[in-house]
Amino acid sequence: MKDLNQDDMRYLQLLSNSFPTIAEASTEIINLQAILNLPKGTEHFLADIHGEQEAFQHVLKNASGNIKRKVNEIFGNQIRDAEKKELCTLIYYPRQKLELVKENEDDIDDWYRITIHHLVEVCREVSSKYTRSKVRKSLPPEFSYIIQELLHEHTEDVDKTAYVSAIIDTIISTGSADDFIVATCNVIHRLAIDQLHILGDIYDRGPGAHIIMDTMENYHTWDIQWGNHDILWMGACAGNEACMCNVIRLSLRYANLATLEEGYGINLIPLATFALDTYGDDPCTEFMPRGLIDDESMDEKTRILTARMHKAISILQFKIEAQMAEKHPEWDMADRALLNSIDFQKGTVTIKGKEYQLTSNHFPTIDPACPNRLTKGEAQLIRRLHHSFKVSEKLRRHIRLLLQHGCMYAVVNNNLLFHASVPLNADGSLKEVPLYDGKCYKGHELLHRIGMIIRAAFQKDTDEREREYAVDYFLYLWCGKDSPLFDKSKMATFERYFITEKETHKEEKGYYFKLRDSEEVCDRIMESFGVKGPNRHIINGHVPVHVKTGENPIKANGKLMVIDGGFSQAYHKETGIAGYTLVYHSRGFELVQHEPFTSAVDAIQKGTDIIGTTQIVEMSAKRMRVSDTDKGVEIQQQINDLEKLLYAYRHGIFKERERKK
To answer: What HEC string does 416-443 produce?
Structure first.
C-alpha cells in the first residue's frame, strides 16, 4: 500500500474512533464484504399520483404485484388460488381483513396457526435480501424477538418443530395473534420494497394528496423528483399568489376541495362570499366542475356555487399572472396576458392577430382601461387567501418533507430520474435557458440551478431580492415555455374556458417530447448528468401514455421509460389504463400496467386487487448484487478506507486502544 498522505491521516484518525482495534476494523470489513454479495434491493418507481390516495396506498401495499409474485413462488400448488388471494389481501389490509375473518371463521385458532405459518414464510422470503441487522431494525419492538426466532427456525427441522409450534400457540393463547399478524404484515410491506422513487405530481385532481403526504412522513426510504403540480403547491406555500389561485382553481375544476379544506384548513368562505356577490346572476357555464364529478354526485345549488367560485378565482389568477409577466419580461410570457386583448364591447379576443368570439362577456371586475388591476374586493380576497395559506402548519410541514426528500432530478444506479423534460433545441442539442443571474444553463447544470432557486424561496438567510425572485419563479416553473417541468409553448387555460375553436387550445410540446425516442438524444442527456454504464436509462412521467392509440411507454430502444399511464381517474378514459409503475429488482426491470382500482373496501371484502399486466423490460444476465449498485460503490470505498486503517495499525502509524465505555 502506498504511503498515506495528510488527508488520509486526518480521516483515518477520525475513523479510528469508531474502530479502535484491528479486530473491530477487520470485523467491519468482513461484514461489509458480505453485504456486497447480497442481492440488490428492490426499487419501486411511481409517477403522477395526483391525489389518488387509495390506489397509491394499494400499490404500495402490493408492491406493484411483487408480493403476489412472492406468494405464488412460495406456495405454488401447495394451497389453492383462492387461499393465496386471501393471504395477499390479509397482507395488504391486515386489520380490516382480520375483522371479516373473525366474523366468518368457525375455528379461529386453527386459522391463526395456518395463517401465521404462511405469513412467516412470506416474511422469510422478502427478508432474504437483507442482513439480519437490517431485518432486526425493521421489526416492531414488541414482537422483534419472536419474529426473529420464527424467521430463523424451520418446522422442517424435527428438533425445532415443537419449539416453533409452542411459540405460535402461545401467541394465540395470550390473545396476541391479531397484533402479531398486523406486525408481520407491516414488516412484509417494509421489506418488499427497499427504495421508493416518486417521479413527481403527488398533488391536484384527486381528493387525497394530503393523505399521501401523511403516508410519506412515515415511509422508510423514499425520494421525489418534483413535478409541476408539486411545484404549484410549493409556490403557494412560499407565498406566490398566482400559484395560490391556480391551486384553488384546479381544486374547483375537479370539484375536489378535500385537500385544500380538510387537509390544510384553507378557508374558502371569503371566496364563496365574493363569488356570490360578484357572479350571482352569472350562470358561469364554462366553469361548471368536470373531470371527476358525474351529474348525480353534486346537487345543482352546489354545482352553481362551485362554478361561480371557479370563475372568480380564474379571473383573479389571470390578472395576477399578467402582473407577474409584466414584472419579469425575461420570461417572455407577455402573450399570456390575454385580458389585454379583449374587446369588451364586441365580446371578442385577439390572439396572434386573429379575432375569436368569447363564449361569454360578463367580466364585472375588469376595467377595460386597466384590465389587470385588481378591484378593492379582489385585493381583499387575495390577502385573506394568502393569510390562510401562510398559517397552514400542515401544508408547511408537508412542503418541508418535499424539500427534504426531493430535488429536480436524481441519478440512482445508472438511472436518470426526472418528472417531465430536459429542454432541447430542434437539433436535439441541450437548450440554454437564462436564469436569475442573467447566465444561461443547460442540461444537468440547468436542473441543478433551478433546484437551488426553489430552495432559496424557503431559506430565511437568502438575500431579499433573490428570495423574491425565487418565490415569483414558481409561476414560471408551472407554465413557462422553457421550464423543465412544463416545456410547452403555452398553458391555454384562458382559451379552454372562453374560446370554442380547438386550434387555440393546442399546447405545442417542446422538442424533448418530440425527440425522446432517439437513442442519440437520450445518450446526450444522460452524458450531461454523468450517467455512465451500458445499461443506463432515463425514467420520467408527466405526459400520460396513450395505450388506447398504441403508444409504447418504452422508447429509444429501451433507454427511456415513461411511467405516467394516468393514476388520476380523470385520465382513465383518455389513456385506457390506470397508470404504470416500474419495479427494478435483482433480476432486472419489470413494467407493470395497472387497470383502474375500484376501492379499498372492495379489496378487503371481495379480495379484488389492481389487475396488473407485467412487461419484462430488461433482464440481467446474472443476478445483480449490492456490489453492482451505488450503495455497493459506497461500501467498497468504506472497505478501502478500513483497509488503510488496518495498514496504519499494523505498521505502528496508529496505536490500538480500548473502546471508551
So the answer is: EEECCCCCECCCCCECCEECCCCCEECH
Is residue 428 within 8 A of residue 511, CB to CB? The reply is: yes
pLDDT in tens, 378-389: 999 999 999 999
In what helix (H) or strand (E) does residue 145 lie, and over which residues does it extend? Answer: helix 144-152
Which one-letter amino acid corresponds to residue 112?
Answer: Y
| H/E segment holding residue 272 | helix 269-279
Question: Cell for 198?
Answer: 416518486
pLDDT in tens, 586-617: 888 988 876 666 666 766 666 665 555 566 66
Cell of 525: 442527456
Is 0.90 surpassed by the pTM of this model?
yes
Helices 66-75 and 81-92, packing angle to 10 deg: 140
The string over 570-579, giving b where at least 16 C-beta atoms fall within 10 Å of a residue's C-beta and e elsewhere, is bbbeebbbbb
Q: Which parts of the chain register pLDDT below 70?
A: 1-2, 154-159, 291-297, 546-548, 565-578, 594-600, 602-617, 659-661
3-state secondary structure labels for all residues of 44-88: EEECCCCCCHHHHHHHHHHHHHHHHHHHHHHHCCCCCHHHHHHHH
Burial 408-428, CB ≥16 within 10 A → b, else e: bbbbbbbbbbbbbbbbbeeeb
C-alpha cell at 105: 371463521
